């Protein structure tokens, strides 16, 4: 990851150094709200607030977390990671028109 990414995302980078805060980093990648709805106009507006490069950086971060932690990730964080990957991968595909 670039220095620019690290400077602008201290929570994401900090969670890589202190895994006990990983849930905080993953939670900040979700839309607010209990049900985390990622459909409708609200989600489209939220998603378009990120450039394609930013969305790809989030996907790369999530892949890196999974790669770093492998099987050592606890079940709660594994679920958050699975959800975040599904949300951000689909937002990247939607933007590209896949």
The low-confidence runs, each spanning 5 or more residues with pLDDT under 50, are none
Specify the biggest β-sheet.
Answer: none
Nearest-integer average pLDDT:
80
Kindly state the number of beta strands. 0
State the domain count: 1
Structural class: mainly alpha
Number of helices: 6
The end-to-end span amounts to 26 Å
Strand content: under 5%
Helix-residue proportion: over 70%
Overall shape: it is: globular
Radius of gyration: 13 Å
Topology:
Elements: H1 3-8, H2 10-17, H3 22-27, H4 40-48, H5 52-69, H6 75-96
Structural summary, described in words:
This protein has 98 residues and is mainly alpha-helical. It has one domain. Helix content is 70%, strand content 0%. The protein has six helices and no strands. Helix 5 packs antiparallel against helix 6.
Q: Could you list some keywords that capture this structure?
A:
98 residues; mainly alpha; 6 helices; 70% helix; globular
């Amino acid at each position: 990851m670039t220095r620019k990414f690290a400077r602008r995302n201290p929570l994401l980078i900090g969670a890589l150094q202190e895994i006990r805060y990983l849930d905080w980093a993953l939670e900040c990648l979700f839309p607010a709200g209990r049900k985390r709805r990622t459909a409708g106009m609200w989600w489209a507006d939220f998603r378009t607030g990120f450039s394609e490069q930013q969305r790809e950086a989030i996907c790369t971060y999530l892949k890196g977390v999974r790669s770093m932690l492998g099987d050592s990730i606890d079940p709660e964080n594994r679920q958050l990671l699975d959800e975040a990957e599904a949300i951000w991968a689909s937002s990247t595909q939607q933007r590209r028109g896949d």
